[in-house]
Design brief:
The protein is mostly beta strands. The chain has two helices and eight strands, in the order βαββββαβββ. 14% of the residues lie in helices and 36% in strands. Strands 1-4-3-2 form a four-stranded mixed beta sheet, covered by helices on one side. Strands 5-8-7-6 form a four-stranded mixed beta sheet, covered by helices on one side.
Length: 146
């Protein structure tokens, strides 16, 4: 692959990450009421038989969004082995996971320091993993205030 950083047409930011969902109400409720995102826009394509719901934290900034794609005729998906996870920043991971549990969210990995430290810095992030209603993994990363 050519690593030419002098291109004038190179992409400049991440717009959104698309996830296929099986139930609009369950997924939107999770991303809004559990993760605190806001529905930024919804687009319905009747002839194509699908609906797009864009969610994010701030519509006034260039932050990346989540695009939930609901295909009207398909409700079950197999998440491929190439999919990893979405990562979200939190300031108090232990309190966040406690609140998520109270809301019935499946905690895949309880909060705690990563098993391994980065070779370059020796830093061990404090992380946890949760799961959305369609089984997508979401990593929570506690960001230190220093």
């Amino acid at each position: 692959m050519n690593n030419n950083n002098t291109l004038t047409t190179k992409p400049s930011r991440i717009l959104y990450i698309m996830l296929r969902i099986g139930n609009i109400e369950h997924s939107v409720e999770f991303y809004q009421n559990v993760l605190g995102m806001h529905e930024l826009r919804r687009e319905t394509f009747t002839k194509g038989r699908f609906t797009l719901i864009f969610l994010g934290y701030d519509s006034k900034s260039p932050n990346a969004m989540i695009e939930l794609t609901y295909n009207w005729d398909a409700h079950n998906y197999v998440i491929g082995s190439g999919y990893g996870h979405i990562a979200l920043e939190v300031t108090n991971i232990y309190e966040a996971c406690k609140e998520f549990k109270e809301k019935g969210v499946n905690i895949l990995l309880e909060p705690g320091p990563m098993t391994y430290a980065a070779d370059e810095t020796g830093k061990r992030e404090v992380i946890a993993f949760i799961e959305d209603p369609d089984g997508y993994k979401i990593e929570l990363v506690e960001v230190s205030k220093s």
